[in-house]
Amino acid sequence: MKKIVLKILKFLAFFSLGAFIFWFIYKDLDIDRIKSVLKNEVKYFWVVVSLVIGLLSHISRTLRWGLMIEPIGHKPRFINTFLAVMIGYLMNMAFPRMGEISRCGVLSKHEKISFTKLIGTVVAERLVDMISLLILLGVVVFSQFGKMLNFIKQNPEFKEKIYAVFTSPYLIVAVIVFIILFLVFRKAFKHTVIFRKIIDILKNFKEGFISIQSIKKKGWFYFHSIFIWTMYFLMLYSIFFAFDFTRNLGPIAGLTVFVLASFGMVAPVQGGFGAYHFMASEALALYGVAKINGGIFALVAHESMTAMIIVIGIISLLVLPFINQRNDIVEEKIGN
After folding, report:
1. So what's the pLDDT on residue 94?
2. 255-298, pLDDT tens digit by residue?
3. Boundaries of every domain in the chain
4. E-assigned strand segments in the chain
5. SS3 of 10, please?
6. How many Cβ atoms sit within 10 Å of the Cβ of residue 121?
7. Is the CB of residue 85 less than 8 Å from the CB of residue 105?
8. Across the chain, what does the average pLDDT equal?
9. Which of 10, 81, 163, 315 is the most buried (most CB within 10 A)?
10. What is the pLDDT of residue 330?
11. How far apart are CA 306 and CA 312, in angstroms?
């Protein structure tokens, strides 16, 4: 009962955080203007293109995960692996990071693979994704550094906000208190649950990196790793052509928005709700896109992606038992 209550409270906390960010972004925007653009000005053909590209990325992720599972002595069926991936995405809509555990549980049950070993493959997968995102962030920072400086110069209020945050007496006091507490209680800290979890995470990343080295078809693994992130980028960049105010922005602008919005997706809120919208609209502001237009763009990009995940995720939940029941019957007949 206690665990259920904690899960509910955790869900509400994450959801409230996302909802607050979402409200903060859209509270001052013209709702009638947003409705008008969504109804009359969006070229939904490009939204459909975006969703098709997104589906290709999920298929590629499925194939890559299969390659990562092979070294542990299993070759799961594609359909079960794909359904597990999509159910994982759906679960992330309820609890951040729950998707990784859910998809491992689904595949473990229907493919008779060790759950612990599957978790190891997902840790390795996340390590690759993190490295990929950091590389893209580096490309954006180096290529768009001048534009970011110009944006700060042209928007002194933005500069003032950043300065206010880093010079806040509350932040300074908090940092000093944290340093003092760490120095005083550093020995005791080593025996805490938090410290052990940090060590476990570091060990998992190390084991994940080692497991990547044992992949047999490394060429295909690298191909899918590049293909997945290329599709992610094109999925968002396609939405640029759905609006008149973004269609003339180049691929570098698209990459900047994509990378910053991706950091919104990894925020501890369900499906990046609120955080994605904030990061995407702020990134578009670098290229002179009005706040309301940036908000509309983020709304279409995020909600179309979310709708696809929910629809395919629910279908996957419904189809999964039927497919495996039929496979069990076929295997039983073959055995007889």
Report:
1. 75
2. 999 998 888 887 666 677 778 888 888 889 888 888 889 889 99
3. 29-324
4. none
5. helix
6. 25
7. no
8. 80
9. 81
10. 47
11. 10
Q: Which long-range contacts (CB under 8 A, 24 or more apart) does 216-220 make?
A: 216/67, 216/70, 216/71, 217/67, 217/70, 220/63, 220/64, 220/67
Whether the CB-CB separation of 320 and 83 falls below 8 Å is answered with yes
What pLDDT sits at residue 1?
61
Give the pair of three-digit tokens for residue 118: 């599957």
- Please tell me the distance from the alpha carbon of residue 99 to that of residue 108, in angstroms, as a whole number: 14
Mean pLDDT of 313-322: 91
Q: Measured between alpha carbons, how far is residue 313 from residues 97, 169, 302 in Å?
A: 16, 46, 16
Q: Identity (one letter) of the amino acid at 323? A: I
Q: Which residue is listed with tokens 């309820």?
A: 94
Confidence bin at 11 (pLDDT 50/70/90) = low
Going by C-alpha positions, the residue among 188, 245, 217 that lies closest to residue 66 is 217
Report the distance separating Cα 79 and Cα 323, nearest Å: 9
Using only C-alpha atoms, the chain has a radius of gyration, in whole angstroms, of: 22
CA distance 103 to 35: 37
Rounded to two decimals, the pTM is: 0.78
What the block records as the tokens of 125 is 């997968």
